[in-house]
Amino acid sequence: MQVTLYVGRDCHLCETARVELERLREELAFELEEVDVTGVPELEARYRELLPVVEVNGERVSVYRVDEPELRRLAARW
Fold first, then answer.
1. What gap in Å lies between CA 21 and CA 67, rounded to an integer?
2. Count of alpha carbons within 13 angstroms of residue 59, beta-carbon side
3. Could you please report the per-residue DSSP string of the chain?
4. Best CA proximity match to 60, nearest among 69, 70, 45
5. Which of 17, 54, 73, 75 would be 28's cystine partner, CB 3.0–4.6 Å?
6. Segments of the chain with pLDDT less than 50
7. Residue 78 pLDDT
8. How many other C-beta atoms lie within 10 A of the C-beta of residue 53?
9. Predicted pLDDT at 18
10. How many angstroms separate the CA atoms of 78 and 64, rounded?
């Protein structure tokens, strides 16, 4: 399972999401990629108002926070 975390510079919610995902990563056995949208116009337009954004295998699963129950559900399928 590939988890992508979209973050922005100086985003305290993004820091919280990062810590939560790192905590879950080993237990749920997923790959974690972090993408900073800061200064990238296309990504800023798509994600900035929703940060942090968590996607699993390219599909958005949560915004503003990590939805741990949803991640656990998806990990069980993989």
1. 10
2. 6
3. -EEEEEE-TT-HHHHHHHHHHHHHHHHHT-EEEEEE-TT-HHHHHHHGGG-SEEEETTEEEEESS--HHHHHHHHHH-
4. 70
5. 75
6. none
7. 79
8. 24
9. 97
10. 24
Residues of the domain holding 26: 2-77
Taking the whole predicted model, whether its pTM rises above 0.70 is answered as yes
Which region holds residue 70: left if phi is over 0, alpha if psi is between -120 and 50, else beta?
Answer: alpha
Other Cβ atoms closer than 10 A to 37: 23
Give the domain CATH number at 58.
3.40.30.10
Question: What pLDDT is stored for residue 47 in this prediction?
Answer: 96
Residue 17: what pLDDT? 98
Count how many domains the chain has: 1
**CA separation (Å) from 52 to 38, 39, 78?**
12, 16, 23
Supply the pLDDT for residue 39.
95
